[in-house]
Structures are given as C-alpha cells and as structure tokens.
Write a structure and sequence with these properties.
Helices cover about 40% and strands about 20% of the residues. The protein is of the alpha/beta class. α7 runs parallel beside α9 and α8 runs antiparallel to α9. It starts with a strand and ends in a 7-residue tail after the last helix.
C-alpha cells in the first residue's frame, strides 16, 4: 500500500483546523503521514496543534507565504508516494483517502484525482470550490460539474460517475509525487487562487490526465480564509487566471483565445459597474496593470511551462469547454451541467 502524505496549509482558525484533524483521525488508511503547515498564524493554532495532535508533523513559516508557499514546503518535507493537498476547513468520509489512492493505483495515466466536494453548511448541495470535478472553458474561465458561475446544484447522485476533469480542486486532491518532480510544484507567483488549475494545466501539457472520483467525499467551508467578496480574492483570481493563460497556451492559441479573453475582462468590468461591485471593477484593472508591469515574470513562467510540453493544444482541447461559459450562462441560460456536458470530448 502506497504511503500517503496529507499536506494541510493553515492560517488562523483553531476550531476549524481542530475539526478537520479530528475527522482525519477517523480515516481508515493505514500508511498515512499528516503534515500541517502553519502560515505564521496570529492565533493559538500552533500551540493547539502541539498540545492536541502531537502525532502530526507541524511545520511553521516565518511569514504568510500563501497557499502555494505552504503547500510547497509541506511537499518538500513529505515522505509519501502520493500527496494529498487538503484544505484546513474540510471534514471527510473515513474511506476517502483509501478510495483516492486505490484509483491512482488502478489508473497509471491519471496523475491527480479529487473527491466529490459538498458544502459543509448545506450538506446536500455541492460546494462552490470544485463540486464534482473542475472544468475550464477555452477562454480560461473555470467552473465545475455541479457548479456553474453562482448556480450550485443539489447532489442527487447525478454526478456520481468518475470522469476526467481539467483540474482538481485545491480543497482536496491526491497527486503522484513522481509527477510533481516532472512538472514542478505550485507556482509561488500565484500566492493563492488558481494555482491548482495552473498546476493541472502543466500536468496536461506533460501528457497526464486528472480525474474525479465521486464515491470519495469531503465537505468544505467554502471561503473560510478569504470571503467571496474580498477584494484580494477577486484580484488574485483575475490576475492569476491571466498569468496561466499567458503561460500555458501555445503562441497561436494565445492569440486566438487571449484577445477575446481580454474583451471578456473589459465586459466583466462593465458588468461590475452595473452591479455596483466596486471591488470587482478595481480588481479587473489592477490585475491587467500587474500583467503590464511584469512582462518578464510572465515570460519566464511561459518558458518553463512550454518546456514541459509533450502534448499539443489540439490534444488538450477535448478536455476544455469549446465555448464561453460566461456568455452561455448569462445569454443562453446554460446554468447546469446537463446543458453543457455534450460539448466535452475528453471522456
């Protein structure tokens, strides 16, 4: 049985972390290492960990390096063959690790697999952050099977079939250590948000696949660390999404999809004005200005990503939604998976 290292990045919130770790103690996977990486919390988290969970490995950071930095530190320390990236605000079915590890054992071309993610507060509904499999349209907009834009489906068993996905949610996913040695770790440039999508895009460039296994289940407090309406969250989502598009598409497709994406960003800013969403409006333009001010950082990342390429964009496109999910959602009212599933050719 492969050794699994669980890596939990943490910043403040003793009670939420305590509930997560108590849930993990009930897991039935025997060959397990649990690592908590504290991102310089200002509360009593570290003391609580040392007192109540002495069997777990506790790593402390000298400052807050974000989700990417904390996960990378944990990955570099971990001893497992498989690495489980797990949010601190989750609880779990006791067999979820066993099921994810068995799936990787049985599917050698799958590098990463995620569980079904349900809402902690409305347990019969999917969670915003990944639901039953992360997807992306050709313009770089992420969504999920069971959650399109703000529409979240009730879990009625309609998405219980395992399938290939474009990205696994940073809330919870199991990945092979050997693959991370090939494609690299989370990009520290991102700090937080979209870093798992960028990592999975690189995974696809390298020739691997990702999947969702809905029989493995976790529940998630979505938005615990950064509330959905926080300016920083909106800014990082817009900026990091643009960075990964600029880095990971081929030159031809960068022109083909990048220019329309820029127009969609401007449209998003106008819609933000209409909704009186000042934070969204400011975030869109702050993200664009960051890209303009840091061309060499973006170019350096692009060179690294393209050097990984073993699979052409034409081979990756079947795993993407071949339209604009935003326009289809708002103009054509395609608000659930059933209406868009026929467009996917990667399964």
């Amino acid at each position: 049985m492969k050794r699994v290292s669980v890596i939990i990045p943490h910043y403040n919130g003793e009670q939420i972390l305590r509930e997560c770790l108590k849930s993990l103690r009930k897991t039935r996977y025997p060959n397990l290492e649990i690592i908590v990486v504290d991102n310089h919390s200002s509360d009593n988290s570290v003391a609580m960990l040392r007192s109540e969970f002495p069997e777990m490995l506790i790593l402390t950071m000298s400052e807050n390096y974000g989700f990417a930095g904390a996960c990378n530190y944990g990955i570099e320390t971990a001893s497992g063959d498989y690495l489980l990236i797990l949010n601190n605000d989750t609880i779990h079915k006791s067999d979820f690790i066993h099921k994810l590890a068995a799936y990787l054992d049985e599917h050698p071309h799958v590098a990463s697999v995620m569980p079904k993610i349900l809402s902690y507060h409305q347990k019969e509904y999917f969670d915003y952050s990944g639901a039953s499999g992360g997807m992306m349209d050709q313009y770089g907009y992420p969504f999920a099977r069971g959650r399109i834009m703000e529409d979240i489906e009730k879990d009625l068993g309609q998405h219980n079939k395992p399938m290939n996905v474009f990205w696994c949610s940073g809330t919870a996913f199991l990945i092979r250590r050997s693959v991370l040695k090939e494609i690299g770790l989370f990009d520290m440039l991102f700090f937080a948000h979209m870093e798992e999508i960028d990592l999975h895009w690189r995974l696809y460039l390298r020739g691997y696949k990702a999947a969702v296994l809905p029989s493995a289940v976790v529940w998630h407090h979505s938005g615990w660390t950064l509330p959905p309406d926080a300016y920083l969250k909106k800014y990082l989502n817009h900026r990091n999404n643009l960075i990964m598009i600029l880095a990971n598409y081929s030159g031809a497709n960068l022109l083909r999809f990048g220019i329309p994406r820029l127009l969609l960003e401007l449209l998003s800013s106008f819609y933000a004005i209409f909704r009186r969403d000042v934070r969204r409006f400011a975030a869109v333009y702050a993200a664009l200005f960051w890209i303009i001010r840091h061309p060499m950082l973006v170019l350096s990342k692009r060179r690294k990503s393209q050097a990984l390429r073993k699979r052409s964009d034409a081979e990756i496109m079947p795993f993407l939604y071949p339209r604009s999910i935003a326009l289809d959602y708002y103009l054509k009212k395609k608000k659930n998976w059933k209406k868009i599933a026929p467009y996917f050719k990667g399964n």
